[in-house]
Amino acid sequence: MVNIITIILLFLSKLLSTSSNSIRSPCAEIFQYGKESGKDVGFLEIGVPKTQIYNFNVTLVFNVASDAPLTDNSVKLTLMYNTSQVVRRVLSGNRVSYIVNFEGDALQLSQIYFSGKLVCGIDEVDQPTGDIKIITAFNEFKAGVEVVAEYNRLFKIDISEDKCGYLEKNVVEFSIGGQRAIKLNWPWIASIIDHALFTPVCLWAFYEDIENRPGTIVAFGETEFSDSGDINQLDLHAVSSDTCAKSHEKLASLVNFQTFCAKGPDGTGPCRGDSGGAFMIREGNKWYLRGVVSSGLENEYKECDAENYVVFMDVAKYVDWITNRKHTLKKEQDKPKQIDTRQPIIDSELDRKQQVFCYIGEWHLEITEKIRPGLCSMIYIWFASIDVNGTIQADNVRRLHNFLDLKPRYASKIILSLGGYADYTTKANMGIIAGSPTLRKAFAKSCLDVCKTYDLDGIDIHWEYPNLPDQEGYVEMAREAMKLLNPAGYLLTIGGPADKNRSGPQSGLRIKELSEVTNYINLITHDYHGDSSIHWSGGGLNINAPINAKDQDSVEDTLKRYIDQGVPPGKLTLGIPMYGRWWRLKDKNKITIGSPYIQGKQNDYAFAPAFHDYCRHLNDTSWTVVRPTLEVAPYMYRDRDWISFEDFQSVQDRVDLANKYNLAGVKIWSLEQDDYDNDCKYECEFPLMRTINNRLGRKIDCDFIDPNEKKEDIKEGHRKRTPIRDHELDRERQVFCYISLKENNNFTEYLQPNLCNFITLMSAEVNNDGQIIIKNEENFEKLLMTRPKFTSKILLSLGASGDGATKSSFQLISPHSAKRKAFSEICLAICKKYDLDGIDIHWEFPDQRFKENFISMMRDIQKLLTPAGYLLTVAAPASSYWSSPTNGFDIKRMSLITNYIHLLGHDFHIDDSPDSNGGGTDINAPINADDEDAVEDAIQRYIEIIPANKIILSIPFYGRWWKLQDKNKTDIGSPYKFNYQGTSDGLPAYNEYCSFLNNSVWKIVRPELEVAPYMYFEDNWISFDDVESTKARVKLIEKYKLAGARLYRLDQDDFSNKCKSDCAFPLTRAINNALGNRVDCNFGLNMKIEPKSDEKDQEISNVQLNIEDKTINLGLLVSSGTRALMSISVAKIVFITFFFILFNIN
User: Fold this and answer.
1) Final residue before a domain boundary, out of 140, 165, 187
2) Considering only 145-159, 339-353, 417-431, 722-736, which range has the smallest mean pLDDT?
3) Half-sphere exposure for 684 (CA within 13 Å, toward CB)
4) Which range is least confidently modeled, 74-78, 727-731, 839-843?
5) Same-domain check for residues 322 and 361
6) Which of 1049, 1075, 1101 is the last residue of a domain?
7) Helices (H), 517-624
8) Which has fewest Cβ within 10 Å: 156, 234, 284, 455?
9) What distance in Å separates the CA atoms of residue 406 and residue 394, rounded to the nearest whole number?
10) Is residue 227 domain-shared with residue 371, that is, in the same domain?
11) Which of 514-536 are b and which e, b meaning 16 or more Cβ less than 10 Å from the residue's Cβ?
């Protein structure tokens, strides 16, 4: 049986009605209009290559009048010969003939394709385009003198995704040709095209991977109860053509890269009459067309063999052809002339260090828009096929133009890769080409033509794998291609076999000769152990791509083989996998390499999961990770699941190997398998790619800004910003000062420089719409106006423990993507408006319900702030209750999103907290505690999960004041009066209680365990902090190498020095000095001093007399602020100099 798969794509367009006899044929040499029994027909004669005698397809494209009354049989195709006649004609070099019956006035032939290649056609420039198109398929053709497709179904597709895929009516009753009634609850199947009750199906717009995908077919075919006629539906599971071909030798002759297969449960599947039926997949709330029924097998009783797979034409392979065909069908003479500015390739002058060659599956719909500048030196689009004549079928690479259109943005060369592991036809054709001098020259010319036509930068031959007789011809084929490509400015690379059976001496691979006729050899060191490998480990588990191995079949062994045979290391790139291998164990207790697995798992689509598929498991403690010493690359297991995988450490190990042997760089297989959307919440997108680039010495950070984007104008007075590079931030001795700007608060005038690296303002709320409302805007703007004096970055904090309104808003905003996006945009806008340096989110505290929502909200904010140059920080709970995994703060993922984590180590015990001690007095923030709920315990919990230098430890500048129930019971844990917590005195600031510290009526106790002190007088009991306790907290920062301190709050320090310390801000100065940030009492010229006595004034006068002649010189040494001394009164000059001298004396 000759398997001819015919797809007719009928494009809706407006066409003047004309007689078929007056219509010009698009290609008179193979197609002519005529008459047959008085009816309009077409006669098609087409030559079939001998290599495709049993596997070819003819595709006709018609223009359709918009008001044409089309029916199921608007087009019929008749093959004029039986099977044996077709074979004889092809073998003798004669054409195969068809008769095309069609409704003449309604249809006009536009294009003809043979096996996907345009063989003739009318330019579509003047053809109108629309969102609704019609697709039909008919098959199968049986041997006979006259064969007509009995059933060919028409149905609508909506390529705009505007109104498609939804169910409009549950049951529809209508008739076809008045012959029968049909009950239908799948309204997107439009057998009657213009029926008003139909909703078009959506055109496929997602992944190409089809392995094990569930879908539904709706068609009219035969059932076990009746002949075809009634519409039926059936749920199926799909598999790739590769899997299908392995399942049955007859199916192997029916499938190709443009097909997939499917079958239903318990021996069910499509049957006769179902040809053209729609295979639909549900994505979200819509249904999408993925395939159309093509052909299947018969059993011994000549019945449909539903036990085996049925073949479908894969709509995913035709998406661009349907939606954007002008790109490939436009006449050559209509293309704009390009000026050839390429310089010849001189192989010896190519860059042979730090190269990153990224392979990308061309079907991936999203990756084209997500690739960022600097990720790759070259981008390889795989794969194009090659016909038996040596011609590259570049038009079949459906999204090639998507990559080419964005080429300036990628800042990378683009190479077209030919062949691949699953294109058996191209593999066979390569063998034929390699053996023929004439075809080798034709292939070389096709390589050059394709590069020029598509403005590519070169060709990659990815022949998996040449047989022993092909090896000599392979070298010559590459030689011919390089002879044409390099002088014209185009590269030639090849894929180099890695395993010892295919690259060892027994393979016959001419490694040294190939290196001389190519520019680079990209080693396939990303894949050693798959179920189809001839070097398979015999049924036992193995590492996908071991760096070393006992059987000497590993990455390093491959490198040695190539280099030992004379290949210059600078010609080689090392293949790095972005995927793993996933098996099911036969015995879950046998998990070591070599243990038996269940073969069935190999057929699962997840058998080779991408990094973005399994990265979520890496932080899941239910999986056990093992790093073998010899193989280096890790594996993980859980129950019966076993995955050989790659992570940050393993890809770095592979880069180190490339550097060790001085290779040209690395080959990435393949880019779309990285976590390009950051679903696993790393620092930013493409985490593995960034790791690889940085290890190679190519600096790649989270700055993914399109260099072609217009730079935003900087407002007058605002600072120019560059994207935040998290790894470049200072992570030592940082001081974040939180400030509350209350009404009538005169704190701003006391604020001095050098106290803080960052000032975080607690002066805003967020409403339910995500709007940020500045409270006390007068004080807010007043502080911003004095910014040059502070030399500090300024952040705006949103939310706090007492801000219930903002907490409620976060709960409303975070679950909804649209609200999160709007809120994120507002965060960015307010940073720009006030020239802030970032946003701090202080959600205190979300529970488990909002865990994922919180992460999503922070991620959305980070995506806008980081590239624009603004910081994002977050407040993190310290208590064991709120920081536990069962609550709403995801420590690991939050650290990957934000620049600093503010660990709220300033507050552990309040009366309404779930972690309260149950009514007894307690230290507000104990450094240690019997219940292990203390500052040091919190630090230890966090650094087990995230880097210590991401953490800022919060230090309290306030205490807890209780009224004791019994003034004679003053120990920690003594009962207190609950109502006292609610008074304004319940949280006294340091500047409120510091006057008690030198008052002997207050008894001070410093517990050895908790470290932080408390004091009591009568029935008053205060847990507090002072200079000594804050220094003890800083010691924890140094001990655990945290990033710094968070002062909560700066306005609670003794900023006016009313308690008569050495000078103002005693706690802040103590923390800075303990951290190593030298801050003394010289705060500038605006310090307000209250002289302690007339005697002190006399001392100042005496100092003035003694040093008057040196005042100017000494003043110049104090600080930059004293450079204006000449314009200041003598009294002020003496004042500054006096403190300078005291500092040096002390």
Assistant:
1) 140
2) 145-159
3) 25
4) 74-78
5) no
6) 1075
7) 555-564, 611-614
8) 284
9) 18
10) no
11) bbbbbbbbbbbbbbbbebeeebe
Residues 818 and 857 in one domain: yes
Distances (CA, A) of 1102 to 373, 446, 1095, 1138: 68, 97, 11, 10
What does residue 491 show for φ and ψ, rounded to 5 degrees?
A: -85, 155
**Packed helices 1111-1118 and 1130-1145: angle between N→C axes, nearest 10 degrees:** 70
Residue 935 domain-assigned (yes or no): yes
**Residue 870 shares a structural domain with residue 816:** yes
Query: What is the rounded CA–CA span in Å between residue 861 and residue 839?
Result: 9
Nearest to 292 by CA among 324, 315, 317: 315
Pairing assessment for the beta strands 758-762 and 793-798 based on DSSP bridges: parallel
Q: Are residues 451 and 315 in the same domain?
A: no
Show the domain range for 230. Answer: 201-328
Query: Which residues have CB under 8 Å from 998's CB, separation 6+?
Result: 1059
Tell which residue, 821, 1018, 1010, 1035, has the closest CA to residue 929. 1010
- The CATH number linked to 490 is 3.20.20.80
Nearest to 482 by CA among 447, 436, 521: 447
> 1044 phi and psi, to 5 degrees?
160, -160
Asked if 837 and 793 touch (Cβ cutoff 8 Å), the reply is yes
Q: Are 630 and 551 in contact (CB under 8 A)?
A: no
Is residue 78 assigned to a domain? Answer: yes
With vertex at residue 1131, the alpha carbon angle to CA 1128 and CA 1133, rounded to the nearest 5 degrees, is: 55
Question: In this structure, are residues 263 and 218 in contact, taking their beta carbons and an 8 Å threshold?
Answer: no
The reply to whether 862 and 794 lie within a common domain is: yes
Instruction: Tell me the HSE value of 174 on the side-chain side, using a 13 A CA sphere.
Output: 17
In a shared domain, residues 250 and 388: no
- Whichever domain contains 214, its CATH number is 2.40.10.10
- Taking the C-alpha atoms of residue 265 and residue 255, their distance in angstroms, rounded to an integer, is 21
Distance in angstroms (rounded) separating the CA atoms of residues 188 and 161: 13
Residue 370 belongs to some domain of the structure: yes
Give the mean pLDDT of 741-768: 82
Cα 1079 from Cα 375, distance rounded (Å): 44
d(CA 312, CA 291): 6
Positive or negative torsion for Cα 555, 557, 560, 562: negative
Which DSSP category does 167 fall into?
-
Which of 1085, 1068, 1030, 1118 is closest to 756 using CA atoms? 1068
Contact 936, 1012 (CB under 8 A): no
Q: Has residue 164 been placed in a domain? A: no
Q: Does residue 1142 sit in helix, strand or coil?
A: helix
Q: What pLDDT was estimated at residue 150?
A: 28
CA distance 860 to 1115: 50
1015: which strand partners?
1004, 1022
**What's the rounded mean pLDDT across residues 962-980?**
83
Q: Return d(Cα 577, Cα 643) in angstroms, integer.
A: 14
- The DSSP-derived string for 1060-1118 is --SSS-HHHHHHHHHHT----S---S------S-HHHHHHHHHHHHHHGGGHHHHHHHH
- What is the Cα–Cα distance from 530 to 855, expressed in whole angstroms? 37
Partner residues linked to 491 by β-bridges = 458
Does 103 sit behind a cis peptide bond, omega within 30 degrees of 0 on the bond before it? no
Q: How many CB atoms lie within 10 A of CB 905?
A: 31
Longest dimension (CA), the chain: 129
Residues 313 and 361 in one domain: no
Alpha helix (H) residue ranges in 765-917: 777-785, 787-790, 804-813, 817-834, 851-868, 891-897
Give tens-digit pLDDT for 181-222.
333 333 333 333 333 334 566 777 665 668 888 888 866 555
What is the average pLDDT value for the chain, to the nearest integer?
Answer: 75
- The values of phi and psi at residue 392, to 5°, are -75, 130
- Per the CB < 8 A criterion, the answer to whether 566 and 515 are in contact is yes
Q: Give how many domains the chain has, as a whole number.
A: 4
